[in-house]
Write a structure and sequence with these properties.
The protein has helices spanning 9-13, 28-44, 49-62, 70-92, 97-123, 129-143. It is mainly alpha-helical. Helix 5 (97-123) crosses helix 6.
């Protein structure tokens, strides 16, 4: 259909971006989080309110390595609140267990980012993908022992 615009064809096939390529490799946790969000956005449809909110959550995940500011903290809080409600609604509607596990992981990543941001303010240790993965790993180990 858009063969006369070959440079746009990848955008049409993959409308949702992956975690940006940085000097560090995103962790398996963050890759799984991104895949979960991309899958849910695709299933929700590109114009639905859920898809737009999920895209906002994806944007927050992409911004974990960025410096903290008031707007970023607000976006992170809103993303966490949305995922918490979305997960509850998905569980109530009988969503598949693997999807629920993915949603819970997204919530865990957002909670870990919040912890990392608070530590950044208190100790000066910058929030990063690696720090968030470390916190998620610690949360997972504590919750599953």
């Amino acid at each position: 259909m858009l063969s006369w615009l070959p440079e746009l064809s990848p955008v049409v096939r993959h409308p949702f971006p992956a975690i940006p390529r940085l000097n560090i490799k995103p962790s398996a946790v963050l890759r799984r989080t991104a895949i979960t969000l991309q899958t849910l956005m695709h299933q929700a449809g590109s114009c639905s309110a859920d898809a737009l909110a999920l895209a906002g959550v994806m944007d927050v995940i992409h911004g974990i390595n960025k410096p903290t500011d008031v707007l970023r903290r607000r976006a992170e809080a809103e993303a966490y609140d949305f995922i918490a409600v979305y997960t509850e609604e998905a569980a109530a509607s009988g969503t598949a267990p693997d999807v629920l596990a993915g949603l819970r992981l997204v919530g865990d990543v957002l909670a870990a980012a919040d912890i990392a941001r608070k530590q950044e303010r208190e100790t000066g240790q910058l929030c990063s993908y690696a720090r968030v993965e470390e916190i998620v790993g610690t949360m997972y180990a504590q919750n599953h022992n």
